[in-house]
Design brief:
Length: 599
């Protein structure tokens, strides 16, 4: 037993003050009376009375003394030592919801389900005074409940969590955990499968137990890491990854536009990577390869690839074209149509794109490459700005994979008002190349005039425009590839409402062309978008993130200066100052009643 704030004991001086107040207060009044005979009798009767009757004369004093004493005891925060099964008064439980938690541990139970089971077991061991916070980790961490003590609420929150399949951003999650760990007695319990000790040690100062689920059992997995279709030569290339598998035969199935085209097998060797090469494939829109293998991780057994049109698109060039680009376009497309204004085109070809040099504020319903030539356009080019810095391009964009703008000289560029396009290349904080969507149509923009740069003299100039045309003229039935829960504009083929249908033929969502941002489904797979009026079908694929393709679990560990348990129990300081606050309040009510009745 002890106290946590002994310095508040100095407030006992108020008790001394209360005693002094009663000792030196005026108790008698001097008066002249005819006889003191009656006073003598009264004094004798008082002296002969019991001691507790005498105390009634000072009842208010004792009550006030008790109130002050109770408050002072509460301020010094007395405690006694108790035992509990878990260390810490605040338990923070963190659950990984990434795709790798879908791997099985045994008997069809996934790592995610095993983690939920272990979290519930931990809740059963906590004491009544321990508070619990629960957080999930995906692309963005989410705090489900904070410092809750009710077991039923905590149990419901854990059982209601669903796996989100996106990458687990533990750096951001652990920053939030550290912010919640403001108390001394905080213990963190993390349920994951591939969390590394270095990340935890760099991010957390509290005692942390990391349970990497699945490291106790042998793990076997073979999965598809890459599936590429060469449409010109009708070939397919499939790369496989394997973990813990021995040399054996693996069956696979190739589906084209929903119809099974090929069923075959190959011998998996002991190498970490294997390859399958398929020839003479028929034309189609959607290709899907599936491994018929009963391994411990099913999500990476299937992959989807969309076709690209074999014929080149019709290119509409609106406005006065640059001679550099006009010569290049003849090598890219077989059919190029030049026009001075948009109104000169009476009918647009289906498989076509637009390259616009026009300053018209017209939003075409086609994929468009805007070339800055004059003020105006839907991008609102407003003024030319001289450039004094070399261009800087941002990494991670496939369109710039073979382009190096750091060696390109650009004299001036057109500045724009704020828009929703993503900047790919910039200089002097002025966008030079941007990409995005306008009215659900894909858009690229070059913010400088080709004649005011030496870019046409560089070898990567034709490569960029070839890739730009390929990207803008993609498969119209394919809406592209999405990461789980990725948010971005979706170029819908037609206006109206669409149903999002999964591979089990279940309608999981409805979207309309008025929605500016589309949120992709969380589970990897092939999804259909069906127009509710015309029944036209488009496809999109949610792919498995690369970090979730290798799913071998790491070892569990503990970091921080944890207290060693004695016979399976931890000691903690159990404060009981609230009892004295309640006592002071009750005595205050009694004191008020005594004062009111003048007892």
């Amino acid at each position: 037993m002890g106290v946590l704030a002994p310095y508040f004991g100095a407030m006992s001086i108020f008790l001394v003050g209360l005693v002094a107040l009663y000792m030196f207060r005026k108790q008698y009044e001097e008066r002249y009376v005819a006889s003191h005979l009656f006073w003598r009798e009264a004094l004798k009767e008082y002296q002969a009375s019991k001691w507790w009757h005498k105390l009634q004369k000072h009842l208010l004093f004792f009550l006030q003394f008790m109130i002050l004493l109770s408050l002072i005891i509460a301020l010094i925060r007395p405690f006694f030592y108790s035992e509990q099964s878990l260390q810490g008064q605040h338990l923070i439980m963190v659950l990984d919801t990434s795709a790798s938690m879908e791997a099985e541990v045994e008997d069809g139970i996934t790592r995610f389900e095993e983690a939920q089971k272990q979290m519930l077991q931990l809740l059963e061991e906590k004491s009544n005074t321990q508070r619990v916070s629960i957080m999930t980790v995906g692309e963005n961490p989410q705090l489900l409940v904070s410092q809750e003590n009710d077991y039923s609420i905590l149990e419901k929150e854990i059982l209601d969590v669903e796996i989100l399949y996106s990458e687990a951003n533990f750096e951001r999650a652990l920053s939030l955990v550290e912010a919640l760990s403001v108390e001394e007695e905080t213990t963190v319990h993390i349920y994951s499968d591939q969390l590394q000790q270095e990340i935890v040690e760099q991010s957390l100062s509290s005692v942390t137990n990391v349970y990497n689920i699945g490291n106790e059992q042998p793990f076997m997995n073979v999965g598809i890491s890459s599936f590429v279709i060469n449409h010109e030569q009708s070939h397919a290339f499939i790369q496989l990854n394997q973990e813990g598998m021995e040399e054996q035969q693996v069956d696979y199935q190739l589906t084209i536009d929903g119809e099974v085209f090929l069923e075959d097998s190959f011998v998996l060797d002991n190498e970490p990577h294997s390859f399958i090469y398929l020839e003479d494939l028929p034309a189609g829109d959607t290709y899907q390869i599936e491994l018929i293998e009963n391994d411990d991780y099913k999500l990476d057994n299937i992959a989807t690839s969309f076709s690209q049109p074999s014929e080149s698109p019709v290119i509409y060039v609106i406005g006065e074209s640059s001679p550099f680009l006009s010569l290049l376009l003849e090598q890219i497309s077989e059919e190029i149509i030049f026009a001075n204004t948009y109104s000169d085109i009476t009918e647009w070809e289906d498989h076509s794109i637009i390259i616009s040099f026009s300053d018209e504020n017209f939003i075409p319903e086609k994929p468009t490459l805007f070339m800055a030539q004059d003020a105006g356009t839907p991008l609102q080019f407003n003024e030319k700005v001289p450039l004094t810095e070399r261009p800087v391009q941002f990494d991670g964009e496939s369109l710039l994979q073979f382009t190096d703008f750091s060696q390109v000289f650009i004299l001036e560029a057109w500045n724009v008002e704020e828009n929703s396009l993503d900047v790919l290349v910039q200089a002097n904080d002025i966008p030079l190349i941007s990409k995005g969507y306008i009215e659900n149509q894909p858009v690229l923009a070059v913010h400088f005039e080709l004649e005011q740069s030496d870019w046409p003299l560089h070898s990567d100039f034709p490569i960029f425009f070839y890739q730009a045309v390929e990207e803008l003229s993609g498969n119209e039935r394919s809406l592209g590839y999405f990461a789980p829960l990725e948010q971005r504009p979706l170029p819908l083929p037609e206006k109206g409402l669409y149903q999002v249908i999964d591979e089990d033929n279940q309608i999981i969502d409805e979207i309309g062309d008025d929605e500016s941002i589309f949120v992709a489904p969380s589970k990897p797979g092939l999804y259909r978008l069906r127009h509710m009026e015309t029944n036209e079908i488009s496809y999109l694929s949610v792919y498995l993130p690369e970090s979730e393709q290798f799913v071998k679990a790491f070892e569990s560990f503990m970091v921080g200066n944890g207290e060693a348990p004695q016979e399976g129990h931890f000691t903690y300081k159990n404060e009981f100052w609230k009892i004295f606050v309640l006592l002071a309040f009750l005595v205050l009510l009694v004191e008020w009643e005594v004062f009111r009745r003048e007892l």
